[in-house]
Amino acid sequence: MPTIAEMRTDLYRLPLPVPMEASAAGVMTAFDMVAVRITDSEGTSGCGYTVLHEGQGASVAAIADLPFREAVTGEDADRIEWLWRRMYRGHHYAGRGGPVSFALAAVDVALWDLKSNRLGQPLWRLLGGYDPKVKAYAGNIDLNFPVDRLLEGASRSVEQGFRSVKMRLGRPTLAEDIARVQAMREHLADDIEMMADANEAWRVDEAMRAMAMLKPFDLVWLEEPISPDNIAGYAHLRAAGGVPLAAGENLHTLAEFTALIAAGGVDFPEPDLTTCGGITPFMKVARLAEAHGLPVISHGAHDLHVHLLAAAPNAAYLEWHAFGLDRFMAEPLTVTDGFATAPERPGHGIDFDWDKLEAHKGG
Ligand SMILES: [Mg+2]
After folding, report:
1. What's the DSSP call for residue 193?
2. Of 254, 320, 312, 280, residue with least CA distance to 113
3. Buried-state track 321-351, b at ≥16 Cβ within 10 A, e below 16
4. Which of 12, 67, 270, 336 has the most CB within a 10 Å radius?
């Protein structure tokens, strides 16, 4: 059995092609990426990464680089569940979420990539293999754009091949938000689906009013209307009905997803492997959703998530926004007629240009 011979961690700060705003995060001009590369005793390697807002990568890189490297080095590379649990349990006191979950994600993805590279199989087949064709939508981040740029961005997404487009909410007044949604609905062809993401902009009462006003626009879902911590609030809003709800990008553990789903707080569970501890817990969330009769959607990192959704029979939508990370990849994912197709290359198939990334080293 191959053992883990080497693990290296690198931190990058990558500028965004254009500054983007979402309600909770504010205006973003760059993001941090923590990349982990693992080589086994037979010389096979795997690569994983997680992405964070600017300035948040250093603590995650530190956790991966020392304690997690020590936890996995010399161990059986195939026992991913055991390695994951070892890292999680070993850091539960300062963890059970937060930076530990992000660091776990980078290592876990590298372990899965290593395993599928060694077996010569694409990740989506190794994870179960359902359907390589996954419905994708444009997760545009555009709260800071005036209406004309907002609509231009949606047009570009449609030209790129999307049939579903998301926009951001959380302007200073609800009236302004609704006017932007109306402008978008009138701008897009009738057969283009719309989603909206409030990124935690509202209190429960404000969200109730917003949902009543959003109802005529037939959104596929309204995302994160309120704080991710307010599970009772989500259950209340969902019971009130009107607009399906999506949430999950800010949940960092399987237990948090269990609580939200068990409370009846979500129509579209939306895990992000880069924030919830990697592929290992993401697939558990996907199965948890399936067991509750719910679909699963992903958040960000579409080049990785396409494999996970292609392995899940309840997959609904792949979110497409990678902060421009595509420009550092040899063969980034593409979308055609609203669908992305998981590649048949071994592993996750992402081939980073490490020389090009080198110019952005440090965070
Ligand atoms: Mg979101």
Report:
1. E
2. 280
3. bbbebeebbeeebebeebbbbbbebbbbbbe
4. 270
Rounded to the nearest whole angstrom, what is the distance from the C-alpha of residue 299 to the centroid of ligand 1? Answer: 7
* DSSP of 242-291: SS-EEE-TT--SHHHHHHHHHTT--SEE---TTTTTSHHHHHHHHHHHHH
Query: Which residues have CB under 8 Å from 235's CB, separation 6+?
Result: 263, 264, 265
Between the CA of 7 and the centroid of ligand 1 the distance, in Å, is 32
Residue with tokens 């302007």: 171
**Residue 317 structural domain:** 125-341
**82: how many CB neighbours lie within 10 A of its CB?**
11
Ligand 1 centre from 197 Cα, in Å?
6
Q: Which two tokens stand for residue 83?
A: 């390695």
CB under 8 Å to 132, separation ≥6 — which residues? 124, 310, 341, 342, 344
Q: Give one DSSP letter per residue of 144-173, joined into a string.
A: TS-HHHHHHHHHHHHHHT-SEEEEE---SS
State the DSSP code for 100: H
**In terms of domains, do 129 and 35 share one?**
no
- State the CATH number of the domain containing residue 88: 3.30.390.10
Contacts of 258 (CB under 8 A, 6+ apart): 288
Give me the average pLDDT of each 10-residue run along the chain (363 residues). Answer: 96 91 87 97 98 95 97 98 97 93 98 98 98 97 94 97 98 98 98 98 98 98 98 98 96 97 98 98 98 98 98 98 87 96 98 96 86
- SS3 category, 122: strand
CA pair distance 40, 63, nearest whole angstrom: 20
How remote is the CA of residue 223 from the centroid of ligand 1, in Å? 6
Ligand 1 centroid to Cα of residue 276, in Å, is 14
Task: Mark whether 100 and 196 lie in a shared domain.
Answer: no
Structure confidence at residue 322 (pLDDT)? 67
Read off the pTM: 0.97
Whether residue 166 sits in one domain with residue 58: no
Cα of 41 from ligand 1 centre, angstroms: 40
Beta bridge partners of 296: 315
